[in-house]
Amino acid sequence: MNAYLNYLIFLALLGIVMPGKAQEYGRGSKAKATAAATTTTHTKALVIGTSGAAARDAILFSGYLEHVAQVPVEQLITLSGKTAKAAQIYTALKKLTDSIQEGDQVYFYFSGTSVYSDFLGTPESLLLAADFKAEEPLLSSIGIVRLSDILNLLGKASAEGASIQYILDTNKADDPLVFQQTAKRNMQTIQTRTQNYTCFLATGHEGTSYNSASNSLGVFTHYLVLGLMGAADTNADDRITYSELDDYLYTQVQQQTGKQQQPVCPSLPGENVRELPPGARAQALKLAQQKNAKALFKTLVH
Fold this sequence. Notes:
Number of helices: 9
Strand order of the largest sheet: 2-1-3-7-8
Oligomer: single chain
CATH class: Alpha Beta
C-alpha cells in the first residue's frame, strides 16, 4: 500500500480542516489567532523520535512531560525508534485527538527528518517515519506522514478550545535528506491551518539542527527541556513565559552551535508556560552546567 492510498484512507476516516491564508514567518511574530488563556483541565501529549539522536530526544522530552510536567502516563504517547512508524503515528494521532476536550493543553513533539515536496499537486511538508526507505520514491513509501494531516486534526481541536504546542526538531545537520527550505515550509504549513497554538522550531528557514558532540542529543531539545524545567526563568519569579523560553532557547542554542543554529518561536501569546515549584530553577541551572546530559537523563528517564 503506497502513501497515496494511505492518504485517501486517512481523509475518508478522519476528515480535514480547510487551510486559511498564510502569514509572515519569523522569530517572535504574532500568532494568527491566539485565544485567551483558559483553565487547563488535562495535559496530553504525542511525542515522536524516529531514530538515533532523534529517538533519544523524544525519550528525554517524554521524561520531562511525565516526571516534571506531571502528564499522566495514560495521556502521554511516546513513539521512539522502530515504534515511530507511519501507521503507528497516525493511530496515535487519532487516539490523541479523540480524547481532546475544551481547555486541554496538548503537546505534539517530533524529532527526525522533514522534507518538502509537491504532494498530490500541493507543495507541503512531509515527516519521515521510522519505516521510510530512502531508496524508494518519496511518495511511494509507506513511511511518510503529512504535516498537514497532523495540523488539520489538532487544528480542529484547538478551534474547539484546546491549546496546542507544536515542537519540531527537524532539518538535522547530519541527515543527507535535509532540504534547506523545509523549516520555513513547516512554519508556513502550521500558520495556515491552526489557531490557539504555540510553535517552537529547532531552526530558522535556512538553518540546520545540530546534535551535541558530547551527549548525542539534539542541542535544541536539550535546552528546551532545561528551559522548561526552570533555567529559562531569567527574572527568578518562579514562572516561565513563552517570551522567556524563546529568549533562553535562542541564546543557548546559538552559543552551543557557534551561531550556526537559530531556533524560532513564531507565536508568543505571552501567558505563562508553567509555574515552577520551589527550587526548580536552581536545579535546572545546576543541570545546565553539566558538560553532558547524563545527569539530566538520570533525572528524567527512569
